[in-house]
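Build the 3D complex.
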Amino acid sequence: MKNQVTIKQVRITPIAFRDGPLLNAAGIHEPWALRSIVEVETSDQRVGIAETYGDASVLRALREAQDLLLGLSPFALNAMEARVRAAIQPGVSADRPIQFGLATGSHVTKNAEKVISAFEAAMMDLQGQMLGMPICDLLGGAVRPEVPYSAYLFYKFAEHIDRPYAPDAWGEAVSPEQIVVQAQKMVAEYGFQSIKLKGGVFDPKLEIASMKALRKAFPTAPLRLDPNANWSLATSIAAAQELDDLLEYYEDPTPGQEGMAELAKHCRAPLATNMCVTSMEEFKRNATTHAVKILLSDHHYWGGLRATVALARMCAVFDMGMSMHSNSHLGISLMAMTHVAAAIPNLTYACDTHYPWQEEEVIKGGRLAFVEGSVKVPTTPGLGVEIAPSQLQKLHQQYLECGIQNRDDLGQMRKYNPAFGGTNPRY
Amino acid sequence: MKNQVTIKQVRITPIAFRDGPLLNAAGIHEPWALRSIVEVETSDQRVGIAETYGDASVLRALREAQDLLLGLSPFALNAMEARVRAAIQPGVSADRPIQFGLATGSHVTKNAEKVISAFEAAMMDLQGQMLGMPICDLLGGAVRPEVPYSAYLFYKFAEHIDRPYAPDAWGEAVSPEQIVVQAQKMVAEYGFQSIKLKGGVFDPKLEIASMKALRKAFPTAPLRLDPNANWSLATSIAAAQELDDLLEYYEDPTPGQEGMAELAKHCRAPLATNMCVTSMEEFKRNATTHAVKILLSDHHYWGGLRATVALARMCAVFDMGMSMHSNSHLGISLMAMTHVAAAIPNLTYACDTHYPWQEEEVIKGGRLAFVEGSVKVPTTPGLGVEIAPSQLQKLHQQYLECGIQNRDDLGQMRKYNPAFGGTNPRY
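Done.
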C-alpha cells in the first residue's frame, strides 16, 4: 500500500543567492537573499522538496521540528500539522514542548504556519510522485492551464554599495523614466500583462509620477502600487485622488487595519494587503473592520497549500478578492505557487513574483520559463521540478560564506546612509 | 497518466428503504425513506459511488446536472464545481442555464451544494480507487483510527399507522422510561458513548424528564437534546435552567440566530445548530450574532468533503466547535461521513447517525459494524464500500412502488391526527 511508505529522513539546507540592490520601505536588499531548502526522503527513496524562508529563526524552527516527520506517511498531512502545532505551542502536547526562536516582528502562530507549509509542500510533492499526479490535481485540479504573474518593479540602485559581484543587468531605477525602462525590459523579457511597483521608497510625488508614467507607457495594463505601509493615512488619502483612476488595487499604503479602513472611505480603488491580514485572527478582524477587499495570499506563511485553498474559500465567503504575495525566491517556490494558484478559482489577479530579480537556480534545468507573463501549470508528477545537487551545494556554500543569517534591509541601507531612520510610516 | 482517465457515464438511482415511525418537530417519519444513489463510471470502467437526498427536487437537479461530468477527469473537482455552479446560477454560464427545482425551505445555493457534494464524493471514491488510497488520505489523512458516533434516540410509535410491513424491533417510546429502554438497547447493540435525543415532540416537561432519566441511567455519558427549533425563546430559557447541568450541548431549541443569540445569554450549556447556520452566509452572520458555539456539519449540504474540511478550518478560526448532523441514510453516506470526520482534527464531538434506525442496505456485505460506538476508518482504496446491484435494484423497486417522492413528515402525522397543526415553534 502506498500509505505504508514512511518518511525516513529530512534535510534542511540554507542557501544564499545573489539579489539586486532593490529599494523598499525598510531599506534595501542585501547582496545575498536567503532561503531554506527542505528535502523529505521516504522509505522507498523518493525525495519531496520545498523552499521557504532562510532567516535563522525559521531555519532553527525547521531543524528543531524536522524529526517530527520521521515515520509519518507522506499522506499524513493532518498528523504532521498536529505534531508541529503541538511542538510549537507548548502545553498542547506535553511530550514535545519545543521552544522556537522568533524572528523580529513575527509571532508563534506564524512560525508554526511557516514550518507546516514547508513540510506540507514537500510531502505533497512526494504524494504526487507516488501517485503519478501533479500537485494541483491533489488540490481539486487546475482551473487554468497557466498562472499569470505580474511584473514586479522596484526602485533600485545600479549596484550594491560594496560591489560584492558584477552589477545586475537592470541598471539604476530612481526616477519615473527609469521605472518605465525597467518595466519595458521586464515586460519584453517575460510578457507580463500586469505591473506592480514596490513603493514607499521615495517622496510619494515621485511614486505617483512613476505610476502616471507607467500608465502612459502601458495604456491598458492593470497597475498596482505597494507603498509597504510607509505612508501616513493623510498621505494615503491625498494620494488616492491621483491614484484612484490608475490602480487595479492600492496595496498597503498605510499601516494597520484601522488606517486602511479609514482610507477605504476616501478612495475608489480597492485596498489590498499582505501586511494587515496575515493570520486568521487578522482575517477575522478584517471581517469587522472591512479594511481590505483583496488579500495577497502566500502559502509560505498561511500554513501551506491546503490552507491557502481554504483561505480562498474564506475570501469568497467574506466577499474578498485574492491575489498572491511573494518574497525573493527560486523555482521550487515558484512551482508551488503555480500549483496552488492553478487550483484556486477565485485567485483572479496576476500573482506577485520576485523571480525576474534572481539569476541563480537550485533546480535541474536552470531557470523556469514564462510565456506571455504566465507559468504553465506542470502536468508531471508532484511539484514538477527537482533539485540540482551541485547547485544546492554551490548555493549552500554561498550561504556559509556570505555571512548573512538574517535579512536586514535597514542595516544594509545604513551602509549607504548612516542617518537612515527606518521610521514607519516615513511619508 | 491517471489524470487522462475521464468520466463516461453517470447513473442516478432513487431508492426507498423501510424507516421507523420516528417522531420529530415536523411530524413523523413515513414508512419509506428516500435517497439517491450516484454512480460515476470512468473510461477505464471504474465506478465511484455516493449517496444523497432522494427528494424529487434533488433527484431532478442531479439528473439535470449529471452530463456536466462527462469528459472530466475524476480529479477535476474544481472544474466540476465550476460547471455545477454555473449551471445552477443562470447567468454565470450562458451556455448551460439549467433551472433546478427547489425543495420547500431550500434555496438555490443549497441545491448547488447538494449536487456538488454528491458528485465530489463519487469522484473522490474514484480517485482513491485509482490511487490505491482511502478517501481520508486524500483529505490529509486520518487523525483518528475510528470515528465515534452518538446514540440518536427518537420518540416513536410502535408501528406505522397503516402497517405497511411488520413493526420494527424498537417498540414504542413516548415516555422517559421508554426512552431509557431505547437508549439501553441501542447502547448495548452499538456501544455508543454519547447520547442524543430528538426532542420538540412532546411537552418540554416530558422531554426534560427524559433527559433526567437518561442521566440517571447513564451517569457519565455526554447528553444532547435537540428540540428542532420547536420551542419558543421563553420556553428554551426556562428549560435551560433544568438542562444546563445535564447537556454536553443544547441543539437548536429555538428558531433563528437572533433567538439563539438571546438564549445564549441565559444558559450555560453551549448552543449547537444544524438549522440556523446551514450556509456560508449564515456562518458569516453567526460571526456577528455569536448565536451558536458548535456547528453540526453535514457534507451532503455543505458542498462536499473538501468543503467540510474547509468549514472545519473556519470553525477553528471563529472559535466554534464541530459536530456532525445526519438524516436517514445507508452505508454509502456513513462511509463518506466517516472518512471526512476522520480527517478533521477539530471534529471532537461524536457524530450523529440515523444508521441504527435502518434495517436495509444497498452495499455489498450488508450492514456496517460499529465497535464501541465507533466506525473504523477504512484503509482500503476509495470509499471502502461497493454497491450490491441486486440490493440497488430491490430498493429502487421499493422507490417505484412506495409512491413517495418527497419527504412529508407533516402529512404523515395528519394521518394519525388530522388536526395536527405543524406550527413552529409549538411549545
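Residues 7-136+389-400 of chain B form a domain with the Enolase-like; domain 1 fold (CATH 3.30.390.10).
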